[in-house]
Design a protein that fits this description.
By secondary structure, the chain is α+β, with helices and mostly antiparallel strands. Helices cover 22% and strands 36% of the residues. It contains four helices and seven strands. Strands 1-7-6-5-4-3-2 form a seven-stranded antiparallel beta sheet. A hairpin with a 5-residue loop joins strand 3 and strand 4.
Length: 163
């Protein structure tokens, strides 16, 4: 019998916000809402430390809907795009989307919003198609910004609520 080998092909980040989850189409002080409305998404998605600017943000957050983010690299004419489609959307609870800019080797991302005791737990989970794809994402630095993104999301949500 061959031994079983388990290979890590996922990455997960978690944050707990000091405010309730609230409703999907709710106020700007709503973590789920800030993930689904372009005018709010633009205010927290790009880490302040990153040398990029979000130039364009299209979010059609519904099953089968698409998203497209266009970034400019500060100090140059270079642009980068991230795009994909939403494959599962449960209002106020979960959003699952593809990351198609890498072709078939793109990750499947899931964000969940769970309220408990007046706080919101936000978990972002990226599932990669292979260990090589995960290693490439880590090596490229594309996974480093998530902690800062979640901090910025909390600042937006808590600040808008006046908590």
């Amino acid at each position: 019998m061959m031994p079983m080998v388990f290979v890590k092909i996922a990455m997960e980040k978690c944050a707990v916000f000091r405010c309730p989850r609230a409703g999907w189409g709710g106020t700007t002080g709503d973590a789920a809402c800030a993930r689904t409305r372009p005018e709010l998404f633009k205010r927290w998605w790009v880490p302040k430390a990153a040398p990029i600017t979000l130039l364009s943000c299209e979010l059609d957050v519904q099953v089968g809907g698409r998203y497209r983010l266009v970034f400019g690299v500060n100090g140059s004419d270079q642009q980068a795009e991230f795009f994909g489609r939403y494959i599962d959307v449960v209002p106020n609870t979960r959003i699952v989307w593809t990351n198609e800019e890498g072709g078939e080797d793109g990750a499947i991302s899931t964000v969940t919003f769970e309220e408990k005791d007046g706080q919101t737990r936000v978990v972002v989970h990226d599932l990669y198609p292979s260990k090589e794809a995960l290693d490439e994402a880590i090596t490229s630095g594309s996974t480093e910004g998530m902690p800062e993104q979640l901090e910025q999301l909390e600042e937006l949500v808590v600040g808008e609520r006046g908590v």
